[in-house]
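Hi L.,

As promised, Cupin-like domain-containing protein:
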Amino acid sequence: MAACAKPVREVAAVDGRLPDEMLRATAPYIVRGLATDWPLVRAGRESPEAADAYLREFYRDATVNAMLGPPQIDGRFFYNEGITGFNFQSVRARLDQVLDELAVQRGRAEPGAVYVGSTSVDTALPGLRAANDVDLGGRDALASIWIGNRTVVATHYDLPDNLAVVAVGERRFTLFPPDQLKNLYVGPLDFNPAGQAISLVDVREPDFERFPRYAEALEHAQVAQMGPGDALFVPSMWWHHVEALSAFNVLVNYWWRQSPDWMDTPTNALMLALLTMRDLPPAQRRAWQEIFRHYIFEPDAATLAHLPEDARYALSPLDEDGARVLRGQLLRRINR
């Protein structure tokens, strides 16, 4: 549980929308009722069956990735005991079949876990956004839909900024700032349930004997308890744990980056650093730490002042053409 966590701050929209400064925030916040006028939200307030029927109006034979877990996992999609596999199975299925399965599980005393995550709204349910959308000031955001029953997504971070809108049901988000990485006991970087590294701590029942530093993480945690129509802004790189609390839940989220599309994900740099730097002798690692500090993390006006602007090459401000050249150089070096 996150009993000692403080609530996420609440803010108000401006004339029904989020101004640019709010969409560039570096701390989370909730906007209550931002999507309260969505037809999907109104249908969900009526009943799970009404929300199901509304979604089916836009179904056009879409196939989605679904996660299915037995009742014993208590909705938590996670690793198996030895972190050699997972406690659920992934399947490809038609979206209407998943909705059928959710209806079946709603009638069971001990339902299995059913979850469709991060599915493009426009692909799975074309036309839905016409009346169920958020104005993001012209940002080219990826709109995704998440559908399931009482499920739990382990603590993870995302590179893009994220606006998560609860359309049906209730959810609880527990958030941690990026500097709490050391206290979250993160699992493998390259072997995880859904593509992002996750914390091994069960937020609902933390094992402080096994994960003692998690107590420190909780001192910095924030909790968002959300109902239909509420929206939560999750800044880039903030860790978040997500609990769907109702028998039928739908969330729509929007992802966008504050950097150009042609910039690669920093995760690639991390994985390359594992390959090239982590196992160097300590003195060499410290030398590379200083190089990264100088060129990447703390550059100032003096860093390149001794070089003419047309002789800075890879150190010049990056644009799409420069990124293409640099990527080509890297690929040639990696594929030696």
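The first helix runs from residue 20 to 23.

Thanks again for sending the construct details.

K.
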